[in-house]
């Protein structure tokens, strides 16, 4: 299944997985290979979450309802793009200057200015980084910095 | 020696490489097994094994003993090694069960 024929979803365990094979069967029916479905339930069991790609033709609401009944929450990945206004909002909600925000993200300030003025769009990885900072700055700080002494 | 219960394979999906999903019935019970399977001469290894049964006491010790005996005959192996997946329910979910060798 190519990326054009599939949509990336996140699975989150919300309780005991009493019917792991039924979950695997449903994921198999949604376009995963059996190996991928097996890996997904192993990840759900061990980590509480998994990421996988289901067929674009799949009715995600119906799939979400069915998995939800088996204590698996289906979450669709957000669009990997952000508008120029959203980039400004994600920066200013934390009271940061363009220079500070660019330094935090590890990019040139002119790159950030281009995003904020709509001349260029940030790539999906940069969008993910900005969203993580906007959502949980403490996680960002912990992951990307270390004490000097 | 234990007599193997007359299980039969109702449904079998092979996921490429080594993943199998098998539905087994014996008249009273219906069991599904999902695992990565490795066959090495007289030994079979089932990794990340999940097992799911329908009905009361389907997965009791007696049924499982019979199933293991049948599986060894079916696969024609002397040793069946089960490396179960992280437990998803029941006692101690989240625990990796000990390796079982039959």
Count the strands of chain A?
A: 3
Structural class of chain B: mainly beta
Largest sheet of chain A: 3 strands, antiparallel
Strand order, main sheet of chain B: write it out: 1-2-3-4-5-6
| Residues in helices of chain B, as a percent range | 10-25%
Query: How much strand of chain A?
Result: 5-15%
Strand order of the largest sheet of chain A: 2-1-3
Topology order of chain B in helix (H) and strand (E) letters? EEEEHEE
What general outline of chain A do the C-alpha atoms trace? Answer: elongated
Overall residue-averaged pLDDT value of chain B: 78
Poorly predicted parts of chain A: none
Strand content of chain B: 35-45%
Net shape of chain B? globular
Percent of residues in helices of chain A: 40-55%
Largest sheet of chain B: 6 strands, mixed
Tell me the Rg of chain A in angstroms. Answer: 19 Å
Q: Unreliable runs of chain B, pLDDT <50, ≥5 residues?
A: none
Describe the structure.
By secondary structure, chain A is an alpha+beta fold. In chain A, 52% of the residues lie in helices and 13% in strands. The radius of gyration of chain A is 19 Å and the shape is elongated. Chain A starts with 5 loop residues before the first strand and ends in a 5-residue tail after the last helix. With 102 residues, chain B is mainly beta. Chain B contains 1 helix and 6 strands. Chain B has a 6-stranded mixed sheet with strand order 1-2-3-4-5-6. Chain B starts with 7 loop residues before the first strand and ends with a strand. The chains are: A alpha+beta (149), B mainly beta (102). Chains A and B meet through α1 and α2 of A and β2, β3 and β4 of B.
